[in-house]
Amino acid sequence: MNIGLIGFGTIGAGVVEIFNTNPDIIMKKTGMELRLRRVVDLDIETDRGVEIDPGILSTDADDILEDPEIDIVIELIGGYEPARSFILKAIENGKHVVTANKALLARHWDEIMDAAREHGVRVAFEASVGGGIPVLRALNESLAANRIESIYGIINGTANYILTRMASEGMEFDDVLREAQRLGYAERDPTFDIEGHDTAQKLIILTLLGFGVHVPEDELHVEGISSIRRDDIEYATAELGCSVKLLATARLNDGELELGVTPTLVPHHHLLSSVNGVFNGIYITGDFTGPVMFYGKGAGRRATASAVVADCMDIAVNPEGSMPTGPGIRVVESVRDFSRTSSRYYIRLDAVDRAGVLHEIAGAFSRHGISIESVTQKGAHEGETVPIYIVTHEASEGAIQGALSEISEIRWVRGEPLRLRIL
Amino acid sequence: MNIGLIGFGTIGAGVVEIFNTNPDIIMKKTGMELRLRRVVDLDIETDRGVEIDPGILSTDADDILEDPEIDIVIELIGGYEPARSFILKAIENGKHVVTANKALLARHWDEIMDAAREHGVRVAFEASVGGGIPVLRALNESLAANRIESIYGIINGTANYILTRMASEGMEFDDVLREAQRLGYAERDPTFDIEGHDTAQKLIILTLLGFGVHVPEDELHVEGISSIRRDDIEYATAELGCSVKLLATARLNDGELELGVTPTLVPHHHLLSSVNGVFNGIYITGDFTGPVMFYGKGAGRRATASAVVADCMDIAVNPEGSMPTGPGIRVVESVRDFSRTSSRYYIRLDAVDRAGVLHEIAGAFSRHGISIESVTQKGAHEGETVPIYIVTHEASEGAIQGALSEISEIRWVRGEPLRLRIL
């Protein structure tokens, strides 16, 4: 089997490193030699820190896409174009595709999978969610006999690193973000990670595999973690026995699918609360297998490359295919509007400490039919701004939004209230 | 695809239940109907609590093994015979086999896999380790590009339930065991689970997949948990920040494979320490993927049946085969004798509290070159028997055994000293 690699960046170099390091294992497990025949990148000058025959480097993707000797194309350039065109051309030319491109799959799933079906080739994408954690194949194949009930995922290492450090070191969000950027755990523009978009794209793929439903990214409810403060995490830990995690959720409720990306309080007794730092965890419940969790490094050169090469090996052994994914296996009738989903909520707001404020706040919750479990106001001097921590009983997102919208209009409330779901 | 099921016990009934409950999912994922054509058991009178056409029940295994219409044989009777003969006959008759039989695979791996290769059929066995946790396929296929460095498994739910309850309720071993038996978490004769034999058989299978090495069960070092007392767990928790777990270990050390089943102190910051109750966790480190953990229900009717049916579905989609396992992928030179493996150790012994005892004990460690990290003797009156808790620095098992053998000869030491490894 001959392989062409498009995208000789961080992960691409990791792929080359695996082929350099473990050729014996690859040979024994597949019964054949998987040969990296061509590596394409716009930049083939930069030293990637791995040994490679310069003769196989090229800047022209067609050296792979048009080479009839190449059986598998690995796409690691990311983004929509030219990745989409390269993948479609590879498929049309009868080549299998291995990709880590979650953005592309989340948006162009049908187009790519339909093309693959039409041309009788495989598109493998284990690396697109959870990096080196073998969660996608497990969800698709090993849990195949189950009706999936729920998927909860901590699937962004940057966000999880920040939340973990805020908790362990008592640091504020901005300080940890700067530290994460210095250590290379966060991008210079971290928006994609900390505002939940990366998590959302991965959730779309998990939802395709678990429920056969393709939700467009712009219809997904996505919240990030940038409004979370140290005192939120301290209150969650000390008073509620919870960790704060950026959670992707896909779960069945009365036959409807509930989806969202939300920072969420996870009780300490739940195994997901022990998924710390840059690690990822995906917690899946099937009707027969019960809860299972997958844990590991969700990103990084070596871990992600491990998933990419395993996909190549799987295609080499099973070129005919794996179990179908996507709309063909749809088992859910409808997706519930996020405003109709419900949860217990943690709410924190800042208000001037004076008589009557709590009464006004409580009134807003009451008018929206929300029942309060606890209210805590840290002592302060009359007239100072203090945080108020509220925990509600089960309430709908719509009701919470309505109440918070009223509350932010109250004269003595400062800034935007924060709401976090409680798992 | 027609399926024959031999063994209509607990898990067999779970298998029937999945085919009754999720036929739509099975059809969508495989693109075909998987039909349970025949169910064989010696007892076909007992009500198993699942709906089944009485016309497909039989007491004669040949009704499956000799039926040319049957493509897949599920073996769920367990044990060596007649399971082995049934499986070999199924293979000879060109049928694929799905089994949860860890004892049989651990002992007769080569015979069964050679026969399957010869006859071009598959033997799938996801349910044999970790019940509903999809760890075996992940290890074999999803981590296929890795050189596996270590596998640590909590893979016996009974033992883990007992250790968890001892810790959370401050109970003694015998009391929890009785409770576990009452709740159905422990067998009436619990030896197989609590003395580590079940864990050992599963470790043999994990070692075949991860390292391509087949270790006979009688060459494996196996310790159980029945000598562990409440005060050991209390000391481990409070003084050492560890949980006690019955751990299967397979790890590379200087190119040699170290194997064993040992009760082990797992630090609280390690995710394995959060695997509680009847749950299982398998923590695997590959040279590229880094550490990954798989968590879920390691036993039980529904979870185990989930793995069995997923194997049937996988065979239906990929009858040609999966990646090879076993000696063909061997990547390790030799297995290290357990006495040459090393660890930090926790040691607890009971001794009469009198001058000179600690000196004698310390002398034994010293003569075997073992360096002591801490010694704690709970206060008592002169002449009473009290526990002494010792933590060593890294020492070889052989040295520890030598020292403990000397120590148990000391006149003032009562009973057998307990030693637990520290992860």
From TrEMBL, chains A, B:
Identify the keywords attached in UniProt to this record, alphabetized. Amino-acid biosynthesis, Metal-binding, Methionine biosynthesis, NAD, NADP, Oxidoreductase, Threonine biosynthesis
Where on the tree of life does the source sit, at the highest rank?
Answer: Archaea
Cofactor(s) listed in the protein's UniProt record = a metal cation
Q: What is its EC number?
A: 1.1.1.3
Q: Which GO molecular function entries does the Swiss-Prot or TrEMBL record give?
A: homoserine dehydrogenase activity; metal ion binding; NADP binding
* Alphabetized PROSITE patterns for the sequence: ACT (PS51671), HOMOSER_DHGENASE (PS01042)
> Start and end of every ACT domain?
346-418
GO BP field: methionine biosynthetic process; threonine biosynthetic process
Pathway assignment reads:
Amino-acid biosynthesis; L-threonine biosynthesis; L-threonine from L-aspartate: step 3/5; Amino-acid biosynthesis; L-methionine biosynthesis via de novo pathway; L-homoserine from L-aspartate: step 3/3
CDD domains assigned to the protein according to its UniProt record, in alphabetical order: ACT_HSDH-Hom
Q: Which InterPro entries does the UniProt record give?
A: ACT-like_dom_sf, ACT_dom, Asp/hSer_DH_NAD-bd, HDH, HDH_cat, HDH_CS, NAD(P)-bd_dom_sf
What the record says about family reads:
Belongs to the homoserine dehydrogenase family.
NCBIfam families documented for this protein? PRK06349.1
Q: What is this protein called?
A: Homoserine dehydrogenase
Q: Which organism is it from?
A: Methanothermobacter thermautotrophicus (strain ATCC 29096 / DSM 1053 / JCM 10044 / NBRC 100330 / Delta H) (Methanobacterium thermoautotrophicum)
List the lineage, top down. Archaea, Methanobacteriati, Methanobacteriota, Methanomada group, Methanobacteria
